UniProtKB/TrEMBL annotation:
<dbReference type="Pfam" id="PF00378">
    <property type="entry name" value="ECH_1"/>
</dbReference>
<protein>
    <submittedName>
        <fullName>Enoyl-CoA hydratase/carnithine racemase</fullName>
    </submittedName>
</protein>
<dbReference type="InterPro" id="IPR029045">
    <property type="entry name" value="ClpP/crotonase-like_dom_sf"/>
</dbReference>
<dbReference type="InterPro" id="IPR014748">
    <property type="entry name" value="Enoyl-CoA_hydra_C"/>
</dbReference>
<comment type="similarity">
    <text>Belongs to the enoyl-CoA hydratase/isomerase family.</text>
</comment>
<dbReference type="InterPro" id="IPR001753">
    <property type="entry name" value="Enoyl-CoA_hydra/iso"/>
</dbReference>
<keyword id="KW-0456">Lyase</keyword>
Amino acid sequence: MGQLVSFKKENGIAVITIDNPPLNVMGQQVQQELKEVTEKVEADPEVVCVVLTTAGTKAFMAGADIKEFPNMIGNPDMRSGVMEMHNMLNNLDNLPKPTIAVLDGLTFGGGCELALTFDIRIAEEHTTIGLPEVKLGLFPGGGGTQRLPRLVGEAKAKELMFTGEPITADAAEKIGLVNHVVPTGDGLNKAMNLANQIADKSLQSLSRIKQAVDEGIEMNLKDGIDLEATLFTDVFQTDDVKEGVQAFIEKRKANFKHQ
């Protein structure tokens, strides 16, 4: 089997593509290659924003590879493998750069959990999203029980996981699971337009916004404000803030170095 995950760069944007037709399932190879690509993107100073897309329009990702599950049944030592998957997802979640996922079809199980690690989700109108693991006698084991309630609230998250029933893109937008719903075929264009709006900003600023929100949301307000004050002090020590302020004074567009 050839390479299933690749990325290309353009104008400060890394576009990651998962090409594992027909359903782009998250098998072991996809997980490993996604981990490697994430590490490359994080280390690349030219990349400011990341967009994830998948091959075809039938499925963004229809979950894990069920064919791998029989090897897990009754295996008391499977936790280490589960944690390898979590490490990969956590690396995506903690990437110190804004991330956008394009959902263009079935977004089920592990596919939904993968999407939840991204900062922004754009869904094409034919997309359906769900966590159907309960129908297999399982439950979401890729961070779904933790990330989904933090995003849409405890009650709605429990309903989705208890029933295992998918929801439409429009319903997902109403509960805050996706940011935008666009016509079928327009997802990547919408993502790239948004990414271009982000990619000319200061990575020093963007990374601190993400850190302040992601870490602060788990804190009480006082500690969150303390974190924000620390990061605000830090950003004033960077070359980018000098450039940004000077560009404003000179009434020109800032030219951030993205270092």
